[in-house]
Hints:
The structure is a single chain. The chain is mainly beta. It folds into 3 domains: about 230 residues, Sandwich (Immunoglobulin-like); about 300 residues, no CATH class; about 70 residues. Strands 15, 18, 19, 20, 25, 30, 32 and 33 form an 8-stranded mixed β-sheet that branches. Strands 21, 22, 23, 24, 26, 27 and 28 form a 7-stranded antiparallel β-sheet that branches. Strands 4-13-12-6-8 form a 5-stranded mixed β-sheet, with no helix packed on it. Helix 2 crosses helix 3.
Amino acid sequence: IGMSGTGDTSDITIPAIMISQADGEVLKGQLAAGLVVRLGGGQAGPPPDLAGQPDESSSRGPTLYNSRLKPDMAAPGAGILSVQVAAGTGGVRHSGTSMATPHVAGAAALLKQQHPGWTGSEIKSALMNSSVPCVTLGGRRYPETWTGAGRLDALAASRATVLARVASLPAEASLSYGSFEVSTATTSSQTLQLVNKGPQLTLDVAVSNSVAQPGVTFTPAFPRITVPANGTTNLSIRLSIDPTQLRARWEDPTASSVGGVPFQPLGEASGQIHFLGGPSALHVPFLAVVRALSSGKVGVPTLGIPADGRTTVRVPVTLAAGGGPEPLVSVFEYGASSPNQGLTFPNSAMDILAVGAANDLGSAGSVDAARVFFGLAVAGKWITPQRAFGNLDIEIDLNNDGIPDYTVASSTQGNISLDALEYPPVANDAFQTAVYVGKSGDSPATLTPGEPWNVLPPSFRDTAPFHNSVVVHGVHAKDIGLTATRTKFRYRGRTFGPANNDQTAWVTYDIARPQLDPTRRGLLGSPFFDSTNGMWMDVIRSNAPAGATSIRALVLHQHNKPGAQVETVTFRFDTADYDGNGLPDAWESTYFGRLGNAPADDPDHDGATNAQEAVAGTNPLDAASVFRLLSAAPASPGPGNIIRWLGTAGVKYSVERSASLSAPFTPVASGVVGVAGTNSFTDGSAPEGAVFYRLRIP
């Protein structure tokens, strides 16, 4: 068949089959024996080595609003040969819960036949208690949110004589602790009830963790229990959470990425409670969804900025004691705000509070390589950012006509790979920003992939994509229509939910003239920072509109409690010393993390006061960082003298010379840009004989 694509080849069929690598190796080993392989119709099915693993189309838990553990269990449901309607003895293969459910229903019917007096809840417990683990090809157990108690084993269920269930909910055979967003140590207990249908038994209690999380433990009240004949025994299982020990980096045990996009794992702690020593397997799955909260707050909310074109400043974040490890904060040039409508959950998740923008053109070097970041905050938390439950979008207007030209949309790798933005069945937890032509709410024909959700991969930092109310979208500038000659546009936040929509006013932004740039020192070139280290940003006063009196930064605390995640920082133009203590605010904020320091103090005892160190741009908390002339000596080889001094990177120095201390000093050089540590300058025009030098900071 020609590969040119010409001619009608519709009547030509090419048989093909895919087998596993393991099966292929077996066949290769038999080639010398004259192996003949026959491809027969109706023989296709899932590879045997994938048996017991969840199909990629299978949904995962927990439940949306109360984080109950689902599914209850798993059963064969992929490529199942079943009866075909109007085909006589013919069959057809299907996949899905329509295939898995009959397996469980059949097993339940067999148990009911075996135990006519058992209730439906007891049969459910027997099926779940006796299920077998589902494991990856690498031998790791799938999380309970994928397969519940495990895979159906009807024979094992038929041997059950002891049942385990939730004492307060006899119809449940799994421990669902719910979701926890905590900043202090927290405990919660649930009680299991064991129902004995036979003689007295003594059972050992053990805990296995399918998804173990540091700082999260599940502890039985007793390591061994006795269940009387035809009686019941209760056992309390206590959940303990220490948020200071939770992970700062998450990775799902079964998948780190999907199609190259980081898989965003739920903050899941799950496993099984095992009862050992009985006549058959007996276990109960458990689940808690945990997220560590922090209490970050901007340390200096207002400060003055000098008249220089660009000022680099660190704004501190104060953190309350406790909370999670490595909380994050992101910074943007403030865009717009929207009033809190006072809605209740879940509608509050579509109620916009603020939007902002940032970009990395300064470090990327070209518009084609640059990224644009948008921060969006809403009033209430979402459970999952899946688009089926709400759109968290940014609309782009390139020509100021008020009609969106592009939309920066919340999406997933599954939707983007199939250009199916609004099709929930293909969505997955590889959350990703998408870009398309048109307005929010459209059903575009083509999607362009943007950055992963919140930009930073979860293996690097946990950005808490679930149970949150702030998001950072990242896109390539060229994908929203920007070019070297078109760098200015308008944007607005836009949300759509089942019962509430919202939008902000349009905001003008120019990636070539940002008033604020946090990306130069942000994590992985993003607007994110570790809260403990504060936020570094370049305030570019020269890019502010004519007549502007200040610049505002939008600050989003990624790990704060929803409702306390949005703050602003105001940089005033009318003064460099907002608190009036004689020290520049930007210098105070950078080094002390606060204003109001005494100019005459010398906290590092290096002989230079705060006032002197502020002029020199040195660190007042480091005795080795001081403006000091080290030496002046004849250059060797060559004419002139070499002057050396301790200086600061970026500070401009003037070198002056005099024949005597009583004579005037004359400039030798000005605008000498300093480096951190030892600096040097060669005075090639120095006269013969003794001379004196001094350094000045203009």
